[in-house]
Amino acid sequence: MANIDLESEPNAKSAIKAIHVFNTGWGEQHKEHRYGSKLPQMWWVLTSRSWIKIPINAFLIEHDAGLVLFDTGLDPAIASDPGYINSAIGRFLLRRIFRLHIKPEDKLGRKLDGLGFAARDVVKAVFSHMHFDHVGGIADIPQADLLVSEREWAQLSEPHPEQEWILREHIEIPGAKWRPIKFSQTDDPLFAPFGGCHDIMGDGSMILLPTPGHTPGSMSMLVRSEGMPPILLIGDLTYEADLLFNDRVPGTGDAKQLRASFAKVTTLKERLPDLVILPSHDEKAMRNLETALKNKSAAIAA
Ligand SMILES: [Zn+2]
What's the pTM value of the predicted model, to 2 decimals? Predict the structure, then answer.
């Protein structure tokens, strides 16, 4: 777990006190899934024997107004409940796409306990997208507003969302406070290339930006606070930030949309050179965040 306390930062006067990276278990995905392949997707899904270990990360931001999550990880029930996924074809494909290593103690509420927080103090959870490894913790935070893009939410009304791994049995749970959000037009040159943005706290500390490609409604969140470098949480837009800058698309998603989103993130990085980009399934995320925050503190101290 990477626990970054910004209170020790003398110049920090912002509404964000700290950001934490934690995982809700581990998985394995195929090399072709992570790094892309010239083969048709169903071919490598059924034939690939190469597996790469990946964390199922989520992020916790301590804001003056309460705790904010970016994604909620995987529900350990996926390992213990044979009927966790309703469709038989879904269960078949899941075994070919992922190997999962998840224990009861990986449940969101228990992970937050381990960080010294209570799940009941989460006021908002932002979802990069609605795949099962990102929405698995919502039962632990019934009081929280669940923020998802309107485009992502619309998939539930389209035919066979389960074919896109949008599984209503994990999303439409009783009492869940889903809040589909609309991006607003903006003149801010930083965000204009994205075609809109949404400021979740009204103070500029957490800005949602559409970054479609992995799913049509995928979004990223820019976290900004004095005393820390700007951080972009990008969900599954890429599995490793370097791949994005090398224009290497993964083996799933819409390649054209992915490349367009890569270009927007690259432009953002040019405008914010110390921007730290953190994907949800990158083992280096914790180390990269710690290093960036240390470098920033050192620069301020100097
Ligand atoms: Zn994922």
Answer: 0.90
Instruction: Indicate the pLDDT class of residue 51, thresholds 50, 70 and 90.
Output: confident
Q: CATH number for 2-301: choose from 3.30.930.20, 3.30.1120.10, 3.90.950.10, 3.60.15.10.
A: 3.60.15.10
- pLDDT for 212 equals 98
Q: Tens of pLDDT along 263-300?
A: 999 999 999 999 999 999 998 888 888 888 887 766 65
CA 237/CA 211 separation, integer angstroms? 7
Pairing of strands 16-30, 2-5: antiparallel
Distance 167 CA to ligand 1 centre (A): 13
Beta carbons within 8 Å of 242's beta carbon, 6+ residues apart: none
Calculate how far, in angstroms, residue 171's C-alpha sits from the geometric centre of ligand 1.
15
Amino acid at 213: G
Whether the predicted pLDDT of 248 surpasses 50: yes
The residue extents of the domains of the chain are: 2-301
Give distance in angstroms: CA of 236 to centre of ligand 1: 6
CA of 106 to the centre of ligand 1 (A): 16
Relative to beta strand 51-63, strand 16-30 is antiparallel
Query: 301 CA distance to ligand 1 centroid (A)?
Result: 37
Cα–ligand 1 centroid distance for 131 (angstroms)? 7
